[in-house]
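Researcher: For the record, we're logging two predictions in this thread. I'll number them. Prediction 1 follows.
Model: Prediction 1, sequence and structure:
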Amino acid sequence: QVQLVESGGGLVQPGGSLRLSCAASGSIFETYAMGWYRQAPEKQRELVATINSGGTTNYADSVKGRFTISKDNAKNTVYLQMNSLNPEDTAVYYCYANLRSFTPKSRYWGQGTQVTVSS
């Protein structure tokens, strides 16, 4: 019943910026946390950033100072503002939400959006 739809990916030059969005829809009764993972070819999946229900944020060391995660509780939407992008940020970015619907607390995933940083 719950669906997460991502948007905002694309091609950007080194040093540029992108803003990713992830909107959760459906019967959502409580959201506990949302965040972003990324998966690059031949690399392990990396947890990029998280934000919990109280607004506490955490970031991977590789993105601290460059990325900012935020949320809009009324819209059940999480954002990832990415600045000073470099080629190592190239990956498919997946959002997730830990939330309660008609079923107990579960993790839901977005479809993924490609971010490519290249000249």
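Researcher: Logged. Prediction 2.
Model: Prediction 2, sequence and structure:
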Amino acid sequence: QVQLAESGGGLVQAGASLRLSCAASGRTFSGGVMGWFRQAPGKEREFVAAISWSGGDTYYANSVEGRFTISRDNAKNTVYLEMNSLKPEDTAVYYCAAGRNEFYRGNYYYKSEYQDWGQGTQVTVSA
């Protein structure tokens, strides 16, 4: 019911920064949450970051904590992922996802919390 479109991916060298955007349209759900996941070739899709409706609560995978920042602008129906100090192991297709309900007890980590997904944007980090 929510259409998501990621943008901002690209090819960068290690240590560089990228800012991903995810624009939501359609039947956006007031009070919903947003997350970012990524999937590298041959690997499962994994949690990267999540944010509550108000933006007051954010969560990060250990591998990106301190380097990535998730934020949202509800007036623009957009969520962002600022990625700094990129490493080759960050190379993956990055997906944004939308969930209808607020988080509790760590459920932001699970893909099942999110009902709508974007098509992904490729991030490639060269050594």
